[in-house]
């Protein structure tokens, strides 16, 4: 009775009607996980959620599997119809071995990654069936499952006239860890906010608009946040000449976005400082970019989108910490001159497409005034980083082994891997050995472009706990990321590629 026949033929046979289901019921799906065999001869195990549903589904599913062959392999799916009236469509997803833990070679938690990959595969299958809602087996990790389910909901479609029916509801199946599920739903929704900012075309996401969206999001979730949208006169008063040298080429006014999240009971507790590169559109300036990649340049504010969304997340969870968020927002259009940075250093601009480091230099000088615990800056800096690590990991340049260890530990849990890159004096000499000024915005050689950006930024940094995250390589979905839809393209800018 329960074969792998076409869903349309199943509907035509009148099976839905015999159960008396509504149209909404007919559009519901279920994703269930099953573990791989530990050794030959073992019986495949359902997850605890699947086992607990035995009377409803798992019993029939187990019986059907015996007749249809082995269960799906890790990351693969098989779809069944008619197992239970509450779930006309059930997608079985293969997990790896049940006891998977931290993989030191891969630098991530294999169990969490298996859950993410499996739920993503099941989610895509439910979407392909055109169903409007689904419930998801936590597959051993409710947080990892929720993250993938919510990320899969995102699709940029604001400018499309014809909007396909979207998944309206995703719920945790069973009694499971509802708290962990809901926590990750909030986290992932903020990730989708960052994606929305980056995917929006540059004529819709100007610096002022970006700042207004962040202000609106923070005001809606927390009274502990202050947002200051600084205009050009303020930037001039602060002598941020390096930032202004990039911004002056555009008709769109620059914005210096300053966020204060005061979550700590101790108002005087030193804050964490997050700094983001916010090039709303990067033409390359007079070192103009190739036209073939012009559409990608709308997301060159990925660093700013990331750090601002992270602060929105902290506010949503009412975290007991203080955070300072700073983002220099402007467009890089065909114009530009060499100017002094806020700390008085003169910068020789030999490539106007190496603009990200110019707008960050002033912010890094300014952020010291808040006496932060640590300083993290994120930027879609270089095509060189994409060449070095591609989408496998974020490149991290840091002057603190303590900070590196914290970032590395966090990356193992999240699956957002990081890799430590060098801050050698070798690269510093390539940017400070400058004919006309104190520092050059590009190094002597093209090859170590990611390293010379970090060396440049280090010239404006005196804090002992600082990290520069070059997120260029991980900002585009190259189809190997199982969590993201094909339409989910986080872009990167080849700033001094």
UniProtKB/TrEMBL annotation:
It catalyses: L-cysteinylglycine + H2O = L-cysteine + glycine; an S-substituted L-cysteinylglycine + H2O = an S-substituted L-cysteine + glycine; S-benzyl-L-cysteinylglycine + H2O = S-benzyl-L-cysteine + glycine. Transmembrane segments: none annotated. InterPro entries: Leucine_aapep/pepB, Macro_dom-like, Peptidase_M17_C, Peptidase_M17_N. It comes from the Eukaryota. It is an enzyme of class 3 (hydrolase). GO terms for biological process: proteolysis. Its EC number is 3.4.13.23. The keyword Metal-binding does not apply. One of its GO terms (cellular component) is cytoplasm. Residues 351-358 form the Cytosol aminopeptidase domain. One of its GO terms (molecular function) is metalloaminopeptidase activity. PROSITE patterns: CYTOSOL_AP (PS00631). Keywords: Aminopeptidase, Hydrolase, Protease. Coiled coil: none annotated. The keyword Lipid metabolism does not apply. Homohexamer. Cytosolic metallopeptidase that catalyzes the removal of unsubstituted N-terminal hydrophobic amino acids from various peptides. The presence of Zn(2+) ions is essential for the peptidase activity, and the association with other cofactors can modulate the substrate spectificity of the enzyme. For instance, in the presence of Mn(2+), it displays a specific Cys-Gly hydrolyzing activity of Cys-Gly-S-conjugates. Involved in the metabolism of glutathione and in the degradation of glutathione S-conjugates, which may play a role in the control of the cell redox status. Belongs to the peptidase M17 family. This is Cytosol aminopeptidase. The lineage of its organism: Eukaryota, Metazoa, Chordata, Craniata, Vertebrata.
